[in-house]
Amino acid sequence: MSSLIKVTELSKTYESEGVQTRAVCNVSFEIKKGEFVSIMGPSGSGKSTLMHILGLLDRPSTGKYLLEGQNTSYLSDNELARLRNKKIGFIFQAFNLLPRTTVYENVELPLIYDRESDKNNQLKVLQALRSVGIEHRKDYLSNQISGGEKQRVAIARALVNNPEVIFADEPTGNLDSKSGLQVMEILEKLNEEGHTIILVTHETITASYAKRIIKILDGQIVSDKEVSEKRRLIAESKKRIK
Amino acid sequence: MRIFLDPIKISYHNLRSSKFRSFLTMLGIIIGVASVIVVMSIGSSAQKLILGQVKGIGSNLIGVLPGASEENGPPVTAMGATITSLKYSDLKALLFKKNAPDIQDATAYVTGTALVKSKSESNQINYQGVTASLSKVENIEIDQGRFLVKQENTNLARVAVLGSTVAKDLFPNENPVGKNIQIKDLSFKIVGILKKRGSSGFSSSDDNLYLPLLTAQKLLLNIDYLNFIRVKVGSEDSINQTIDDIKKTLREEHNIRNPINDDFSVRSAAQALSVLSNVTNVLKYFLTSIAAISLLVGGVGIMNIMLVSVKQRIWEIGLRKALGATDQNIILQFLIESIFVTFTGGLIGIVLGATVAFLSAYIIRHLGYDWEFSLSWQSISLASGIAIFIGLIFGLYPAKKAGKISPMEALRYE
């Protein structure tokens, strides 16, 4: 499999009121197409900052970030916006759906910022809704559906532009365990269909859905392991019993 | 398409979800636009009224006044002196076709005030001594009887024609034609009554009493000069040529070689009309620009509310950016929103302003003025144009601020 994300000696330093904080410190790793990776760590470990950088929402202070072989350091804000639109899908903890807007329109949102995609918008939106099993809610307003449904809409929104990689930031954080399970199963299914998924979480059980777990502490990678098939199955069954 | 529709939909929802706050936000724009509409409407109605009155005198009329033109120093009449330079012979010279071929007709005026008595009433009334041509020059219409005729002038006939108001005042209960009235102890026979004309022209013919020119000069005023001459020209195109002809004729009559020594002045209603319409235009736009100042205040209100809106929706901006919106997309969105707000305020203001202007026109008409309600497309498009412009100008800063918001804000939102 070809390399999708490659970072070398990536660092991010924040400065507030003269005090420098290193959120990410000399991190290097590689993620291939089709992987399902969890980035795990307690809050304040720098995992969110790392995800911001990988998701092209933020720029690194030093180091190199290649997305599909393209160096992202020298891209303008507008070029980054275009890349986010084309190659990256986001799933947020708080769903972040537009209020007073229909499910359909929420999912369509990334397409309206895509200049090249004017045709087949309807087809793409319906397909994305179908793949998360929420097509029947397409004309509901986003505040008329349940939390689990909201997150599925958010996943459909992340899918609609057929991105190279989907970032999920604590996707089950605001959900009850049953809805959380559904969401994780959808993500798992998407990965089986070939989508690259990067999951950011502090929950061990959620993280164990991934095939690879990168653990972060104080801005540094402390472990980077493939999850054995066995352990995944155990975690899965545990969750099922619950 | 959604790039344009979404902001409009969002602003519509925002306006509806907090109606009172939205109303307060738009109030400045509403008041500003309404006052622009009211001022422009009332201004152009007043302009129409004033110009209409001048036109009522006739735009194809030329006035000849005694004394030098005001362009060469202050008018002598202003000092209280009476100028006696205009004579009946001048009128005759002007009516001589060879001198001024485009003159259709002309009449001379002398004016005075006297106590006029009928059998039952008495009144202080302005009278005018005129020639029979007056009916043609001023397009006077007769209600009963007839107007003065030529012979009555030459043989000093003691006859009179009454304006409709004067007739009603002196003879409230009977038909005045054929009756007698007393002016300065002289008895005059009434031969005609004029049709009611309303207040067209600066002096209404309804309030006038007309006598033969020479009768008024010799029997009542004891003078041999004229107060002014009024000339009617066939078409407005020949007014300038005729003015020159009149000047030449009168200079010959008065033995004047150098135009500087002119003892008369010639003016056309068309000249007065263009001066007046310039003056009224300046006034109208001056008042409009004052009204427009309140729009600036409204604009500040819009800027304020847009800044609040940007702050409240930081997460939404972040989300849109995370999904691929560029800075420009966001700026456009907020500009469209602020323009939508000001444009909506503008529409309400136009309706409000038009209503106020219409009501005041209704009231003014009932006060007896010949007032026309006017609401031009120019004033409506000017007002909505200004509203959009205000939205654009005062929305620009908040929109730029929104455009700068980092997409990371989307993830900080809880």
Q: What does this molecule look like?
A:
- The complex is a heterodimer of chains A (242) and B (414).
- With 242 residues, chain A is an alpha/beta fold.
- Chain A has a single domain (3-241), classed as Rossmann fold, CATH 3.40.50.300.
- In chain A, 36% of the residues lie in helices and 29% in strands.
- Chain A is globular.
- The model of chain A has no long low-confidence stretch (mean pLDDT 89).
- Chain B has two domains: 2-55 and 274-412, no CATH class; 84-262, no CATH class.
- In chain B, a hairpin with a 2-residue loop joins β6 and β7.
- In chain B, strands 2-3-8-5-7-6 form a six-stranded mixed barrel.
- Chain B contains 13 helices and ten strands.
- Chain B is α+β, with helices and mostly antiparallel strands and 414 residues long.
- Chain B starts with a helix and ends with a helix.
- The interface between A and B is medium-sized, with 29 and 24 residues.
- Secondary-structure element order of chain B, N to C: HHEHEEHEHEHEEEHEHEHHHHH
CATH level 1 class label of chain A: Alpha Beta
Shape of chain B: elongated
Which secondary-structure class do the elements of chain A indicate? alpha/beta
Query: With helices defined by DSSP (H or I, 4 residues minimum), what is the helix count of chain A?
Result: 8
The CATH level-2 architecture of chain A is identified as 3-Layer(aba) Sandwich
Helix-strand pattern of chain A, N to C? EEEHEEHEHHHEHEHEEH
Name of the CATH homologous superfamily of chain A: P-loop containing nucleotide triphosphate hydrolases
The poorly predicted ranges of chain A are none
Task: Summarize the main sheet of chain A.
Answer: 6 strands, mixed
Mean pLDDT of chain A: 89
Distance between the termini of chain A: 36 Å
Number of domains of chain A: 1
Largest interface: chains, residues each: A-B, 29 and 24 residues
Cα distance spanning the termini of chain B: 30 Å
Q: How many domain regions of chain B? A: 2
State the strand order across the main sheet of chain A.
6-7-8-3-9-10
Helix content class of chain B = 55-70%
Strand count, sense and barrel status of the largest sheet of chain B are: 6 strands, mixed, barrel
Radius of gyration of chain B (Å): 33 Å
* Overall body shape of chain A: globular
